[in-house]
Predict the structure.
Amino acid sequence: AAGLVGLARAWLAAGASALLLGCQAATVDPAPLTADVVRTGHRMKVSESTLREGRRLFVSRCIECHTLPVAWNYTDSEWPRILRNMAHRSSLKDGQEESILAYIRAIRAH
């Protein structure tokens, strides 16, 4: 019985380690709002404050349910659908979805 308990503990420890390492590996740092990204946003007729709000929401709301998605893993045409599907779950208010989309498009175009 003692051997089974030890084996169970070893499996549990290995599983917990794999889970923690997997979570750490999945963590993504969102693209910073650099001067170049702001200039790109201005060319797209998006203000710096909208880009800042979009990044803030992207970081704070998306992470509530899952790791941050990598902006380059999806096309520009996929992002509106993704945000539409997630807007209700993340309780976005009017205009917030558009701010996130503007931030994502600016960092992708940069």
